[in-house]
Hints:
- By secondary structure, the protein is mostly beta strands.
- It has one domain (29-125): SH3 type barrels (Roll), CATH 2.30.30.40.
- 0% of the residues lie in helices and 47% in strands.
- The chain has no helices and 11 strands.
- Strands 4, 5, 6, 7, 8, 9 and 10 form a 7-stranded antiparallel beta sheet that branches. The chain has a two-stranded antiparallel ribbon with strand order 1-2. Strands 3-11 form a two-stranded antiparallel ribbon.
- A hairpin with an 8-residue loop joins strand 7 (81-87) and strand 8 (96-101).
- This is Otoraplin.
- One of its GO terms (cellular component) is extracellular region.
- Keywords: Disulfide bond, Secreted, SH3 domain, Signal.
- Residues 1-20 form the signal peptide.
Amino acid sequence: MARILLLFLPxxxxxxxxxxxxxxxxxxxxxxxDDECVYTISLARxxxxxxxxxxxxxxxxxxxxxxxxxxxxxxxxAGEFWAGSVYGDGQDEMGVVGYFPSxxxxxxxVYQEATKEVPTTDIDFxxx
Length: 128
């Protein structure tokens, strides 16, 4: 289902078709290795299977490797979630990116410490 967004700029109306939906935010801040959250923090291995409850999350099978890019800052008693990409088991080369519970994985290798606290944005929780 496509949404139509109208952007009213002085003297200009832009129409954009957006395929997807903005979901509720899981947190207002995240920890990253850099200000843009593009560098890999760590490599983790799933300790059990996980079935994604909605499009913000990723399905994970026990033993799969996950590259971790950000760690949501826990707030208001919510669970702690990390964002990463899963590779293998028929996934394409780019992998599938999404959130998963941090207690699901064991970090195998830390590449960079997640020391940069960055605000989350709506696009962090956008589902196509």
